[in-house]
Amino acid sequence: VCPTAALTEMYHTDKVWEALSDPDKHVVVQTAPAIRVALGELFGMEAGTIVTGKMVTALKRMGFDAVFDTDFGADLTIMEEASEFIYRLENNKTLPMLTSCCPAWVKFIEHQFPELLEIPSTCKSPHIMFGTIAKTYYAEKNNLDPDNIVVVSIMPCIAKKAEAARPELTKDKRNNVDIVITTRELGAMIKEAGIEFDHLPDSEFDRPLGETTGASVIFGTTGGVAEAAVRTAYEWITGEKLKGEDVVFKQLRGATGLKKATVEIGDKEINIGIASGLGNARTLLEEIREGKSKYEIIEIMACPGGCIGGGGQPYHHGNDEIVRKRQEAIYREDKNKKLRKSHENLEVLKLYEEYLGKPFGEKAHKLLHTHYEERERI
Ligand code: SF4
């Protein structure tokens, strides 16, 4: 179920089929990092089986015009979030900076801690950043009318359905993401289409919004966003390269619900708090409210274990072993990637060069950042 308990499950697969059957629509799909390590479970595979290539083939056979990766949006998020963090650190602005990828947690702070709304990063979440770029840069590059592009997000998450409809996240009254479906809904669609998933060959994501790095893959698990941000902030602040397995910050890893760690970046010690599950988030937020927080960065994910344990994933009925296997698969996928830092993603760099300008600059800010609002206490 949704961790906010505010949403019940609604299937939106009919909307996706409708878009796919409309010859006037250009339908692009993006898949979140946590999907690829869980989707196979719906087809009898063991938890933690990585099915990225089969998933891409299935989506192409279902008729999507382009199959892209939310990981591209995650790399873009790190370009913005690491820039925002360094800006705040070097200009004595508000710290800690809280990550903002998880809409259930964003809603939680808006309702429960409205006095802290200056603290979260203003970055939109990766799939919303992706949708924004699909309807601007990608539309212009391919001479497409943004009104004819339908962006479908496949997410491990039910809260992302409500996030896509937030008025702050629309542009010119147009949704950046049109339809959100979960891992379970994708599984149902693949079965409905009569595709024998386990027999599919592998395919690659389309370009240019399909290049990704290991840093973006680890967004799928608790601690991953903080680790990805640290990889980039470390190199940008020190000017030194993290080589080989030095990119792995073990102190930020694991499935524990509340982690506290210190990372040395040059002559600075950066204290990082990581919470998964809203009870643990409350603990860190109360420390901030009481002026006792020692952190420079805090990552919060509403679901225990992060998105791998999300409410839209194949049911795991509280079986920690399943979540652990998905997490190990995420770390394996990171290790297998040629590029492991977001700022090395060449297609993201090209996007800045051709369209956005500087990370955290004026145009990037306009397109990729958002704001938060106090909501009625519940
Ligand atoms: Fe959604 Fe991930 Fe947040 Fe869970 S942790 S609510 S799956 S974004």
From TrEMBL:
GO MF: 4 iron, 4 sulfur cluster binding; ferredoxin hydrogenase activity; iron ion binding
UniProt keyword Metal-binding, yes or no: yes
Keyword terms: 4Fe-4S, Iron, Iron-sulfur, Metal-binding, Repeat
UniProt keyword Iron present: yes
Protein name: NAD(P)-dependent iron-only hydrogenase catalytic subunit
Annotated organism of origin: Maledivibacter halophilus
Parent-protein residues present: 220 to 597 of 597
